[in-house]
Design brief:
The chain has 117 residues and is mostly helical. 29% of the residues lie in helices and 0% in strands. The protein has 3 helices and no strands. Helix 1 crosses helix 2. The longest helix has 14 residues.
């Protein structure tokens, strides 16, 4: 059975940066009061359904803004962002992962440099 917030989600469609911030902050149990956090993003307002989760994800270093003051909450998350986010989430959850890049040459994004710090 799918959790209620995933019910009806079409998994073959892009997911927004805001949606993924919400899913991961909930999975990782980071649910303190995000409204109390300072908001550096001009494009994330309290009317955004993922407002608190976006600020929590940014505070925890899971996702950063696309610029210093823009988060792009409704933009589809890219594969590069997703890979970085999952790496950071695994670290946050205390899991180890491999940074062996020897098999990456087969990926279309192989020429893209990813910062996993």
């Amino acid at each position: 059975m799918l959790p209620e917030d995933l019910s009806g989600k079409k998994f073959n469609e892009p997911i927004s940066r805001g949606e993924l911030a919400a899913y991961l902050t909930n999975v990782l149990g980071l649910g303190d009061d995000g409204k109390a956090l300072s908001n550096p993003f001009n494009d994330v307002t309290e009317s955004n359904p993922y407002y608190e989760e976006i600020l929590l994800a940014a505070r925890e270093g899971l996702l950063s803004g696309r610029t210093a003051d823009s988060f792009a909450p409704n933009a589809a998350i890219t594969r590069e962002e997703l890979a970085c986010l999952f790496t950071r989430a695994m670290s946050k959850a205390g899991h180890s992962y491999s940074t062996d890049r020897s098999n990456w040459t087969a990926l279309p994004e192989a020429s893209v440099t990813m910062n996993t710090d």
